[in-house]
Design brief:
This protein is α/β, with parallel strands linked by helices. Helices cover 45% and strands 15% of the residues. The strands form four sheets. Strands 9, 10, 11, 12, 13, 14, 15 and 16 form an eight-stranded mixed beta sheet that branches. Strands 3-2-6-7-1-8 form a six-stranded parallel beta sheet, sandwiched between helices. The chain has a five-stranded antiparallel beta sheet with strand order 20-19-18-17-21. The termini are far apart. The protein binds adenosine-5'-triphosphate (ATP) and magnesium ion. The site of adenosine-5'-triphosphate has 19 residues, from α3. Belongs to the helicase family. UvrD subfamily. Its EC number is 5.6.2.4. ATP binds at residues 31-38. Residues 10-287 form the UvrD-like helicase ATP-binding domain.
C-alpha cells in the first residue's frame, strides 16, 4: 500500500498534497476555479482508504450534480481496486433519498414513495389551491412553489413560518395543506427530501448515532453553494468527532437565489474549530488569456475573500467574439464552428455550449440538428419532461403507488377512455368527502372510472415479477399509450412518430438502468427519472456536444467552450438588476462560465433574439465590456446599427459553407404573407405588413398596427389572420 500512497500523491503540488494528507480533523480548502479542489477531494478519499484510515463504507462524499458524482466514482475506481458503486457518493438529494428509502418507516413514508419534479409539484399546488378556493391571480402558483421551497430550505415547516399579514397567512395555509396532501399521496418534493431526512436524523437518536458512528469522513465539494438546511444536515452527521472536509470557492457561489449562503464558510470555521484553511492558487485548467479574462472580470466584485489565481501555462489564443444578427445566426455560427473543431480532431464531448436560460437551447438545438451535430442537453430535464414520457411514468408510478393523485389525474383519461371532466370532478368530490385518495374513490365509483382502476391492477399483477424493461414494455403496450400514438394520422403523424421514438427511448433507458445499477427495481428507476432528469436522453457513451446552462456546468471543464447569448438583460439576467447583490451573483456566474474552458473560448451574442414568442433587440452584455480588449479577437464586423434593416445588410453565411457570399433573404412561400397585406392580431388589433423575413417556424413579420404601432412578430406565435 505504501507504493500506491506515493502514486496517489506524486502528481500534486505541495499545497494540494498537504490538503490530501491532513489529519482526520475538519478542514476548509478555499481555492479558485481549476486549482484542483475536486481532484484533491477525490484523491483524499483514495488516500484515506488505501492507507487503511477509513473503510469505503465509512466515507460520505457530497457532489453538486449526478454527473459529478459519476465522475468521482470513475476516478476512484481508477485509483483503487474497489467497487465504488456501493459507496455513499452523491448529491444531497441522492443521498437523502437513499437514507429515506432505507428507513422509510421511521421517516413515516410509504416504501415506494415517489418524488415530485418541479412541474409535478406545481400541479399538486394548484390542486390544493383549488380545494381551498385560493385565487390564483392573487397567489400565483409559482410564487407559492417558491414560498414553500424557500421555507423548507431554511428548515421551516408551515407552522413554523411567521405570518406577518393575512396574505402570508393564506400562503402558509396552502403550504400546510400541500404538505398534508403529499403525505396522503405518498410523494415528496425536492426540498422535502432534504428536510424529511434532516428531521429523521435529528429526531431519531439511535439512527443518528448509527450514521455518526459510520461516516468518519464527510467530504463536500462546492461547499459555497450549500444552503442552511444542507449545512445543518452535514453538521448533524458530523456530530462531535467526525471530520468534515469542505472545498469551495466564494467566487463561484451562484445559488444565493435559492438560499445558498457563502456565510456557511465562516460558520464552518467556527462550528468545526477549523484551524487550517488551505488555499490553492495555481490553476491547471486554462491557458493564460482565459484566466486573465476571468480574473479581470471577477476583480470587479465586492466582498471577496480574496485569492489570486495564476497558471504556468502559456497565454494561448485570444478569446473569440462573434456578434450575430439574430439568435438563429448565432446558433448556426456555433454549429459551424463545432463542426470545424470536430474536423480538426476535438471530440464533441470536449466542447460545450453554455447559456444563461434554458429557453435559449431551442434555437441551438435547431441549428445543431440541421448541421448534423449530435448533442446532449444536460440538466434541462428535457427528456423526462416530455409529455409522452410523463404519461408513461405516471402509469408506472401508479403501479408502485396507487395513492399518487397527480399521476392518476394525468392518465385517467389518456388515452381517452370516455372519462369526462364531470366524472373527474365527481371523483374528486367523492375523495374529499370520504377523505380518501382518488384511486380508492375511483374503485367505488363504478363505470369507466372503475374500469381504469381495473386496468392499473391488471397491469400491476401482470408485471409483478418481471424485470424492469419488460415492465416498461408491458405498460407501454397495455396502457394504450403506444397504440394511441401509432393510430395518429394526418398532420399529427410526424409528431406522433417522434413520441413513439421517445417511448422506445424510455425502454432503452430502462435497459441501460438495469445494466448500470445494483438496485434495478421500478421504484429505483422512477427515482432516477426524477432526480437525474435529462441526463440520459441520447445514447449513453456516444460522442456528443454538451448543451447546458451555466449553472449546470459548474465543476466541469472542456477543451472549447461557447458562452452564448451575451446580451444585456439575458446575461446578466434582467432579474438581477432589481435584487441587492444580483449583479455580483451574475458576475460570479460569468466567472464560472469563463473558467470552464481549457483552450478555446467563444463569446457570442445576437442583435435580435426570439424569446417566449417575442423578438427582442438587445445590447451587448456589459460583461463583455468588462473583459480587457487586448484579450479579445472579434470574428464579426462590429455592427452599430440596431434596426431590423441592419441584419438585411449583413446576412450570415449559410450553415456549413462559411465561404459562400451572404445568402439572399429567404423567399416567402407562396400563399404566405406579403408586404402591404392587412392583418389582424388578437392583442394588437388591425395593422399592415411592412416587412418580412424568413419563413416557416423561423419567419418574422413586421406589422404597423393602427393602435399599437410598429412591431416585429414571430409568425409561429403571432397567429395573424388576414383582415
Ligand atoms: P472548479 O472550481 O471549476 O470546480 P477545481 O478546483 O475543482 O475547479 P479540478 O477540476 O479539480 O479543479 O482541476 C482542474 C484541472 O486541473 C483538472 O483537469 C485536474 O486534473 C487538473 N489538475 C489539478 N491539479 C493538478 C496538478 N497538480 N497537476 C496537473 N493537473 C492538475
Ligand atoms: Mg471542482
Amino acid at each position: 500500500l505504501q507504493g500506491s500512497k506515493m502514486d496517489l500523491l506524486s502528481g500534486l503540488n505541495p499545497e494540494q498534497r498537504a490538503a490530501v494528507e491532513l489529519p482526520a480533523r475538519s478542514a476548509l480548502i478555499l481555492a479558485g476555479a481549476g486549482s484542483g479542489k475536486t481532484r484533491v477531494l477525490t484523491t483524499r478519499i483514495a488516500y484515506l482508504i488505501s492507507n487503511g484510515l477509513v473503510s469505503p463504507s465509512g466515507v460520505l462524499a457530497v457532489t453538486f450534480t449526478n454527473k459529478a458524482s459519476k465522475e468521482m466514482q470513475a476516478r476512484l475506481s481508477a485509483m483503487l481496486p474497489i467497487n465504488t458503486r456501493s459507496m455513499w457518493i452523491g448529491t444531497f438529494h441522492g443521498l437523502c433519498n437513499r437514507l429515506l428509502r432505507a428507513h422509510y418507516r421511521e421517516a413515516n413514508l410509504p416504501q415506494t414513495f415517489q418524488i415530485l419534479d418541479s412541474s409535478d409539484q406545481q400541479s399538486a399546488i394548484k390542486r390544493v389551491m383549488k380545494a381551498l378556493n385560493v385565487d390564483d391571480e392573487k397567489y400565483p402558483p409559482r410564487e407559492l412553489q417558491n414560498f414553500i421551497g424557500r421555507n423548507k430550505e431554511q428548515g421551516l415547516r408551515a407552522h413554523e413560518v411567521e405570518a406577518y399579514d393575512p396574505y402570508t397567512r393564506r400562503k402558509i395555509e396552502v403550504f400546510a395543506a400541500y404538505d398534508e396532501q403529499c403525505q396522503r399521496e405518498g410523494v415528496v418534493d425536492f426540498s422535502e427530501l432534504l428536510l424529511r431526512c434532516y428531521e429523521l436524523l435529528s429526531r431519531n437518536q439511535q439512527l443518528r448515532e448509527h450514521y455518526q458512528e459510520r461516516f468518519k469522513h464527510i467530504l463536500v465539494d462546492e461547499f459555497q453553494d450549500t444552503n442552511p438546511l444542507q449545512y445543518r444536515w452535514l453538521k448533524l452527521l458530523a456530530g462531535q468527532s467526525n471530520a468534515l472536509f469542505a472545498v469551495g470557492d466564494d467566487d463561484q457561489s451562484i445559488y444565493a437565489f435559492r438560499g445558498a449562503n457563502v456565510g456557511n464558510m465562516q460558520e464552518l470555521l467556527r462550528d468545526f474549530h477549523v484551524e487550517n484553511v488551505i488555499k490553492l492558487e495555481q490553476n491547471y485548467r486554462s491557458h493564460g488569456n482565459i484566466l486573465d479574462a476571468a480574473n479581470a472580470l471577477i476583480s470587479r466584485n465586492r466582498n471577496r475573500l480574496g485569492k489570486e489565481l495564476w497558471t504556468a501555462e502559456h497565454k494561448g489564443e485570444p478569446l473569440r467574439v462573434y456578434e450575430a444578427p439574430t439568435d438563429m445566426d448565432e446558433a448556426r455560427f456555433i454549429a459551424d464552428e463545432v463542426r470545424h473543431l470536430h474536423r480538426e480532431g476535438v471530440a464533441l464531448s470536449e466542447m460545450a455550449v453554455l447559456y444563461r436560460s434554458n429557453a435559449q437551447s431551442r434555437a441551438l438545438e435547431h441549428a445543431l440538428v440541421a448541421a448534423g451535430v449530435s448533442y446532449r442537453v444536460y440538466g434541462g430535464q428535457r427528456f423526462y419532461e416530455r409529455q409522452e414520457i410523463k404519461h408513461a411514468l405516471a402509469y408506472l408510478r401508479l403501479l408502485v403507488n396507487q395513492d399518487d393523485d397527480n399521476s392518476l389525474l394525468r392518465v385517467i383519461n389518456f388515452p381517452t377512455r370516455g372519462i369526462g371532466a364531470r366524472s373527474i370532478e365527481q371523483l374528486q368530490e367523492s375523495a374529499k368527502q370520504y377523505n380518501t385518495t382518488l384511486f380508492d374513490a375511483a374503485a367505488r365509483m363504478g363505470g369507466k372510472v372503475t374500469g381504469f382502476v381495473g386496468l392499473i391492477e391488471e397491469m400491476r399483477s401482470a408485471t409483478a415479477n418481471l424485470p424492469l424493461p419488460e415492465i416498461v414494455d408491458h405498460v407501454l403496450a397495455h396502457s394504450g399509450l403506444m397504440a394511441n400514438y401509432q393510430n395518429e394520422t394526418g398532420a399529427k403523424k410526424h409528431e406522433a412518430q417522434e413520441r413513439i421514438d421517445n417511448l422506445n427511448e424510455l425502454l432503452n433507458a430502462a435497459t441501460l438502468f438495469v445494466h448500470e445499477n445494483e438496485d434495478d427495481s421500478l421504484v429505483a428507476f422512477l427515482t432516477h427519472a426524477t432526480l437525474e432528469a435529462g441526463e440520459h436522453q441520447a445514447e449513453a457513451g456516444s460522442d456528443a456536444l454538451h448543451l447546458m446552462t451555466v449553472h449546470a456546468a459548474k465543476g466541469l471543464e472542456f477543451h472549447s467552450v461557447f458562452i452564448s447569448g451575451l446580451e444585456e438583460g439575458l446575461f446578466p439576467h434582467q432579474n438581477s438588476q432589481n435584487e441587492d447583490g444580483g449583479l455580483d451573483e451574475e458576475r460570479r456566474l460569468m466567472y464560472v462560465a469563463l473558467t470552464r474552458a481549457r483552450r478555446r473560448l467563444y463569446l457570442t451574442f445576437a442583435q435580435s433574439r426570439m424569446l417566449h414568442g417575442q423578438v427582442n433587440y438587445n445590447m451587448m452584455s456589459s460583461f463583455l465590456r468588462e473583459l480587457p480588449d487586448e484579450l479579445l479577437q472579434w470574428l464579426s464586423p462590429r455592427l452599430t446599427q440596431r434596426t431590423p434593416s441592419a441584419f438585411r445588410a449583413y446576412s450570415p453565411p449559410a450553415a456549413g459553407s462559411t465561404k459562400l457570399p451572404p445568402a439572399p433573404p429567404a423567399p416567402v412561400k407562396e400563399g404566405a404573407w406579403r408586404i402591404g397585406q392587412r392583418v389582424f392580431h388578437q392583442k394588437f388589433g388591425e395593422g399592415t405588413i411592412t416587412g418580412l423575413e424568413g419563413n416557416g417556424t423561423e419567419g418574422r413579420v413586421q406589422v404597423n398596427f393602427k393602435h399599437a404601432g410598429s412591431k416585429w412578430l414571430a409568425l409561429e406565435y403571432a397567429k395573424l389572420t388576414s383582415a
